[in-house]
Amino acid sequence: MPKLNRQISAVTGMNLRGIPKRFWMSATTILAVGLVVGVLLSFLALANGFHSTVEGTGSPDVAVILREGSQSELNSSVTREQVQLIEDAPGIKRDANGKALTSPEFYVIVNGVKRSTKTKANLPLRGVGVHALDVRRNLSIVEGRMFRTGQSELVVGRSVAKEFEGFEIGRTIRLGTQNWTVVGVFEAGGSVFESEIWADLDVLSTLHMRSVVQSVRARLQDPSAIEALQRYMKNDPRLKLEAVDEKAYFARQAQGIINLVFYLGWPLAILMSFGALAGALNTMYAAVDARTKEIATLRALGFSGLAALVGTMIEALFLSLLGGIVGAACAYALFNGLTASTLGGSFTQVVFALKFSPHMIAQALLLALAIGLIGGFFPALRAARIPLLAAFRE
After folding, report:
1. CA 143/CA 64 separation, integer angstroms
2. 224: number of Cβ within 10 Å
């Protein structure tokens, strides 16, 4: 065994020292593997960033109440009578005056213009009442002020102000058929709420001539109180509504988008891997052909075929790993923290930042090693079978 280890070490050293002589062919393999890893990591960072943004949205002690069977606020409706019944429901937290902490909300889609591309995109305009800030956690006005009741004023999320034109404080912007004045910017811990625009509930619902709201948010006494609220709604025939905790609601809304991005990234990376695999095979076959006499000479001196096989495999794995590291480093430098936006569950833009993780990088590097393993095996097998007489051929 020590003898075999020395032989493997000698063959590996000879192979690695020969890489500069085959610089351009080796560089082709490194770049091909790097491209595969970079593309895969970009898709995974996209899915991870979107997932992190949505996962950070919502609280288990806040209930989202929608019409029974509705999948989102867009196709839901809650009457004013139902809102009053919800305020009397058990499990809902109350303020110092004994008033239920509930927020009836009206939700419509408006057009915004992206700063980067100058193209239009859907944005959520949410009409909220006086308890909107009390119901949500970690949400606060950081610039300007809250809108005044009964006025055509807006407060916008930090992501909207950053990514879309016309939402600077003091600006008047036309959304739909109404001119609005932007009076404040709010933050919500990087959550989905930062991709929303807020206005006064009564002003917005009057503008759209609607006597109903689309959802009600309620602060619960504790997360387990959702069960008492659900039983209350089920037992009252006037309440054909369903309640789900806010965290679960946003997770359900986002799952389809996350699956789409994730399952698009892996198949694309695997398809590209075939190109990288072809490059690795060509490189390693050329390397073996160029060293035929050297390998045969070593065989004549007593080196085993296994040493030639392992040494060639290590070279292939080294090139692929180097390509993986280059691809991961480039993807991280170019995309980590980069802001993007995509359609969320309600067909409106959700702004988020691409986010890398050690687990994702490890997955991509394993894919790179798999390319090297497969791409190096057959050339390595060829190296192990080189006849001894090849050492004496011209």
Report:
1. 27
2. 11
Rounded to 5 degrees, φ, ψ at 187 are -115, 150
Q: What is d(CA 271, CA 248) in angstroms, rounded to the nearest whole number?
A: 34
CB pairs under 8 A, 24+ apart, for 248-254? 248/58, 248/60, 249/58, 249/64, 250/54, 250/55, 250/57, 250/58, 250/192, 251/54, 251/55, 251/58, 252/71, 252/345, 253/54, 253/72, 253/344, 253/345, 253/346, 254/50, 254/51, 254/54, 254/344, 254/345
Token duo for residue 79: 């009457």
- Flag the least confident range among 66-75, 181-190, 194-203, 207-216: 66-75
For 334, residues 6+ apart whose C-beta sits below 8 A from its C-beta are none
Cα distances from 29 to residues 56, 211, 247, 316, 322, in angstroms, run: 40, 64, 45, 9, 10
Instruction: Quote the tokens at residue 253.
Output: 């809304």
Render pLDDT for 192-203 as a digit per residue (tens, 0 to 9): 788 899 999 999
| Cα–Cα distance for residue pair 239/86, rounded to 1 Å | 8
CA-closest candidate to residue 367, choices 36, 25, 42, 35: 36
d(CA 314, CA 37): 20
From residue 60, how far is each of 9, 128, 226 by CA, in Å?
58, 20, 9
| Residue tagged 């009741």 (tokens) | 149
pLDDT for 157 equals: 92
pTM exceeds 0.70, yes or no = no
Query: In angstroms, rounded to a whole number, what is the distance separating the alpha carbons of residues 73 and 23?
Result: 58
Q: Where are the domains of the chain?
A: 2-55+253-392, 69-239
Task: Give the containing element (helix H, strand E) for 183.
Answer: strand 178-187
Q: Per the structure block, which two tokens stand in for 262? A: 């994730």
User: Within its chain, how far is the Cα of 132 from the centroid?
Assistant: 28
The owner of tokens 């037992």 is: 235
Residue 154: name the closest of 163, 137, 167 by CA.
Answer: 167
Rounded distance between C-alpha atoms, residue 35 and residue 39, angstroms: 6
β-strands 120-128, 197-200 pairing: parallel
